[in-house]
Amino acid sequence: MENNISIRKLKRSLSGDISQRQREFILSCIRQKRKVRILQISIFILFILVWEVTAHFGIIDPFVFSSPSRMAECFVQLSADGSIYYHIGVTLFETFLSFFFIMFFGILIAILLWWNDTVAKVSEPYLVVLNSLPKTALAPVFIVWLGNNMKTIIVAAVSVAVFGSIITLFTAFCSVEEEKIKLIRTLGGNRIDILRYIVLPGNAHTIVSNMKVNIGLSLVGVIIGEFLAANAGLGYLIVYGSQVFKLDYVILSIVILCIVATGLYKGLEALEKHW
Known about the structure:
It is a single chain. By secondary structure, this protein is an all-alpha fold. 82% of the residues lie in helices and 0% in strands. It has 13 helices and no strands. The chain is flat and about 75 Å long. The two termini are 17 Å apart.
């Protein structure tokens, strides 16, 4: 309860007709959430201050580790010609496109495997092997097959998450309560009705949870692809910065990636709460 309910909802529940013990419990939850939030913000501010101070006084090498002030200057510089926004836009576009393909093929193939036991049994060892295979080992092969372009990045990103997504969703689809399936069959329903009224609605939260995992893996896959086959994007900016020894570009790109990853995850988390 404490992890899934926001402070606003807890405050709203205080206005209802509740007992004194319930009120005390809700107030303790609110205090705990505020304490955690304050600690999180304090740790972040302390980290920024320590980073800036140690870089300013030469305790750490600002050329190698950069500093918040240097990153701010770098961001302003790259914002002047709009290049940083272009790189962010390219990475986001590739991430969303990869994420769409991962979820589309993940759900579609999981349904196919659930529908046909023979196909599922034949495909299982191949899916396990493909899911276990290090995807970075495939990236050079994708470059040879597809060329040095966005298609390679998308395929590399999809390969990172799609096999694990298929296995997770297929397992969830097969875990539906047998009594519900028998009820549908008793009422004259067929396999399509079971899928439509039992399997998919019953696994809605599993699908959303899978989306939360896959959006992060999509971003990881895109960055791997941009390291090897890109002319734009945050992954390309990291590689370019390391090659010309502009490490401010590298650190700034990593920080932006952290912000982007957090934003994407929080967006899907909000979707899950309203599902």
